[in-house]
Amino acid sequence: MTYHPYLNRKGVSGQLYGDVLKFVTGGFTINPNHIIEGPGLVYRPIPESSTQPLIEPRSAILHTNAGGTTSKSLWAWITRASVTGEPHFQIGYAGGEQYMPLNRRADCNYTANRWLQGGKWFGAISFETQDNGGATVEITPWTAQQVRMMVNILTCICVVYGVQCSQPGAWNDSGIGHHSLFPFQGVGSKAWTNVRGKTCPGRARKAQMDYVRSEVAKNLAAFGEVTGWKCGGTR
Q1: Residue 61's domain is classified under what CATH number?
Q2: Which one of 80, 86, 109, 205 counts the least CB within 10 Å of its CB?
Q3: Per-residue pLDDT tens for 152-207?
Q4: Rounded CA gap, 114 and 134, in Å?
Q5: How many other CB atoms are found less than 10 A from the CB of residue 27?
């Protein structure tokens, strides 16, 4: 196993960060190429994975497909020349895929795709998630399997990039939020979507956000107990 350089540190227990992270998350880590490695997750790069500008991950934004889209059909759609938006991940009902390295811009979060702040180019990590189609999106929760995979991936992101496990208070704050948290207010607004009235990821999945963040926090506490790592101390 080759870890992201940050995970080659040794904690107070003498164990590598990467080994502890892998244990806490049930096998998930980040490699030197900013790719998540873990059970049920496949790296399936799209053309933009090597051409989009670099970012430092600042936040994570959870979406829903609103089309009953599988990983296979989403990959086919976002690789069409006419489609200009793409996520970093698709979390399906039977596993997930990563399309972009975590340090590359993915264009489905409007203002949060990439921005300059304090001399650094930041960006949001985006998660698309399979659902049962637009007609039921407001009442379809994430499955236990989807939640667990997202929690484990988010734990890795928080450890390596210093993303907070709390809800962001502003569009450019560190944290974990849902797509419509900062809604479109017109041209020039600082928002996570450019569609007025967007409700993504739907009422049922918004109601799960606090649980997702609390589970990430539990993972981070377990990681910190073994390593001495402190939340927010990565950078």
Answers
A1: 3.40.80.10
A2: 80
A3: 999 999 999 999 999 999 999 999 999 999 999 888 889 999 889 899 999 999 99
A4: 28
A5: 14
91 forms beta bridges with 96, 129
Q: What is the largest CA-CA distance in the chain?
A: 52
Own/partner pairs for 224-227, CB < 8 Å, 24+ apart? Answer: 226/11, 226/12, 226/13, 226/15, 226/20, 226/24, 227/9, 227/11, 227/12, 227/13, 227/15, 227/17, 227/20
Domain count, the chain: 1
**Do residues 5 and 32 make contact, with C-beta atoms less than 8 angstroms apart?**
yes
Residue with tokens 């998540």: 36
Phi, psi of 217 (to 5 degrees): -60, -40
Would you say residue 235 lies in a domain?
Answer: no
Cα–Cα distance, 206 to 202 (Å, whole number): 6
